[in-house]
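Exercise 7. Predict the joint structure of the components listed below.
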Amino acid sequence: MNKLKKHTKVDFATYLGVIAAWGLVMLAQSQHWLGRSTMGLLVPICCYVVMAISLNLTVGIMGELSLGHAGFMGVGAFTGVIVSQSLAVSVASPTLRLVLAMVIGAVLAGITGFLIGIPVLRLRGDYLAIVTLAFGEIIKELITCLIVGHDENGLHIVFNYNGLKGADDLNMTPAGKIIIKGAQGATGTETIATFTAGVILILVALVIVLNLIHSRTGRAVMALRDNRIAAESVGIPVTRYKMTAFVISAAIAGSAGALYGLNYSNLVASKFDFNTSILVLVFVVLGGLGNMWGSIIAAVVLYVLPEELRALGNLRMLIYAVVLIAVMLGTNSAGGRALFAKLIPHRKKREEV
Amino acid sequence: MGFLSYLISGISLGSVYAIIALGYTMVYGIAKMLNFAHGDVIMIGGYMSFCGMMYLGVNGWLALALAMVVCTVLGILIEGLAYRPLRQAASLAVLITAIGVSYFLQNSALLIFGATPKVYQPLIPLMNAAGEPNALKLFGGQLSISYISLFTMLSCIVIMIALTWFTGHTKLGKAMRACSEDKDAARLMGISVDKTISLTFAIGSALAAVAGVLLCSFNPTLMPTTGSMPGIRAFTAAVFGGIGSIPGALLGGLLIGIIEAMAKAYISTQLANSVVFAVLIVVLLVRPAGLLGKRMTEKV
Amino acid sequence: MKKTLAIVLAVIMCVALFTGCTEKTDGNDTAKNNTFKIGASGPLTGDAAIYGTAVMNAAKIAVDEINAKGGYQIEFNPQDDEADGEKAVNAYNTLIDWGMQVMCGPVTTGSAIAASAEAYKGRVFCLTPSASSTDVTANKDNMFQLCFTDPNQGTGAATYMSENMPGHKIAVIYRNDDAYSQGIRDTFYAEAQAKGLDIVYEGTFTKDTQTDFSVQLTAAQAAGADLMFLPIYYQPASVILTQAKAMNYAPTFFGVDGMDGILTMEGFDTSLAEGVMLLTPFAADADDEMTKAFVAEYEKRYGETPNQFAADGYDVIYVLYNALLDSGCTPDMSASEICEKLIAQIQTMSYDGLTGKAMTWGSNGEVSKMPVAVVIKDGVYVSA
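Solution:
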């Protein structure tokens, strides 16, 4: 065991942790220890955990602030819904459809990420952040203009840019089914997402991201993050490595979106707005930049927190805000750290970045 | 004539964005943080002046003064309690704290004022006593600009000039610029960095109160979420003009307003927002530091 | 350091999760007495909080009135769903854990579609006060609406215009990222085409652009529109009225039920709404006893005048309670037993409420009551 590198141990502990959590939940489920509300949270938690892993790749490893990550999730979600709904007859197995939806959702989100990455990765710092925000909002508005239907002749898509088109413009046969109706979004989606699929997706995302970090690409990207000029001067091609990481990050977000989209019978584009991007960013920063298992725990805790505070009624979002501020102050300010040092005396070194 | 009236709509809207962006860029320029709570301070400013007018019965101008006082205090408090302890921390930690503050303000307003929107009485009434619109008529009444829009534009220009003068020619202003350049060097020169940043927040929040009053005069419904969208718009405007640049904020705000109006009129009302963002992306690709932003040479 | 904190928080959360489960069993015990458990979900925070808050406030009045009379009692549990499908499912699950037997809501369309899919599988009877899309009730036998449906309003408005206001040039401004607004516009447009109405301009806005309508208004004016159809909620509508007035443009404005509430916004200059027509089931200044008593109580408790959402919420509780009693349900029955009984009951019953007399329901979940057109004169509704 000692021969393994430290990061390898941490990686394996992370995988084991996820699997153990899955095992615990499955056990609890079979023993009926969990209430409906907890059960209902499982799939969205998986989606947000995967989102957090994906965004951590962009923000933590690449060091670029992205404020539009929900856009990729949106692309994946709507692609996933279209794939699953249009294959409802030809592919009978829901599991297979779910996998197909996630894969195709990831591919489309990856392509979107590539197209967006071309302009975005030329910029830096806050300018890069605002452009990702801009792309996120544009994706949301474009999806709002989509009308999509499916009949035996295949997919019919109308882009309703002027607000004058409707479901009739799809020219479908009477057997056709409308999948996305503009602002009303996708309704009547068959909900085929499962917790187990979510956990597998988390594991896949973790394997991809952790291996990427320890690969040549990962080291190059981190070198670029820590000192771009020095990295460039030793001949690391900036665009190629950053683009690889960005596209992978977008594709993972897309598969999380597909899982999310197939968990609800109604999905609207306005869900994937700036606020959702910010929500995921909060998970990443709170969990620790570049720290994947930190992201996982932060996503779980912060997603469950407002739900657990339901009993407090109108105060819950206020308390959520206070907790957020308190945690940031507690973990990042000199005073807060000193306080923790007193409470937990044996904390040492290991704090990096 | 259609084009001109759309242009006037755009400028009116843009001047509201500009006035918010001025406060935003001020804080960013000195404290180097994206203050996502700025929009919510604007909302608080709106509510304060609304309360002044409805419950205390003072006139609009006094209510504005009241709002400015409350927001200034609020700005100093937020800075002192939430941002100052994080002065040495990573910029993302400050960003998340700002988001926390934003949630906090919104939800406090929701608890205090309720979810039902309040209707704000504009600083300059829309109608005069005779029931005619209070507006400047051009070309024999074919075009009109409301006095409140004129007032907003005028305020923007006055505030921009005042801020430029203040940062360029007063001792405090110079201290601000010094902090913005290099906090440690400024400290060595005997400038109190904490006080200077407090002052920046005080000015930024007082401007937010003015922006709140003008925003609500323009768009008279006041809700706890009133500030969030204009806050993002102002962020966009500030980046568009070159973040940290005071004239840039004015220019960025006006351009965003005009582009939005033109996109609505000639392209698609559906995609107006997307068009604004698309233009922003193109501009940033050509000028990566915004229209009037300084291009920093990086040192190794 | 963050890690330590994260672990501490995670432990707290796990404990909280399990305490949540123990509460659930308590819930089942208390349900054995004479109390029905009615859950509700709607937006209580965020942009749409006005609607959820109004429904919950009014529903609480109805619950208190019923409980004061004695007999079977109601325990009412309102949950926040932020008008978001995801949160609505979470709210629904929380209510199920609490032991909900019947559901009032969800309030908004997107939430209602998402949560009703769960309620259909879980067999819980739902009556939504205000989610008006036909997608809410489609293919779900246990989901009913108290409000008009979108087609009902869209075609209703087009029919009214063709019968009573022929020859007008019509402009439409609607919110194209909102299911309610888009839904009514689509059906209005279809019916207007069929009836040969002259639509000269259509403008849209989104959540992000709802502060400024001067461009849409200028374009509508340039197109010569003298009748403006606004299938939107009253808050953006009030901005449109104000900005139209500021540019001296005065078409006849025609709204739908979402427009109700405009007169009672704090600080609103009602002269701006002079001559506005709207289709609404409820008028806060109606002089029947039921409305008067409700409005007085609402103003006393919450310090504001109830809008149509509030009236819908109030009616929902009474409809549910009457249906429970008339179908012989008792509080010891399970949600699914109650569900089957209520599905049968609601299709045979008729109810006189704040938002309509002799309301009846069809098997498709839609209520039958016709929208009434009113016009605003001197700050009050007058039948048109």
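Discussion. The beta strands of chain A are 146-151, 154-159, 177-181, 186-187, 266-267.
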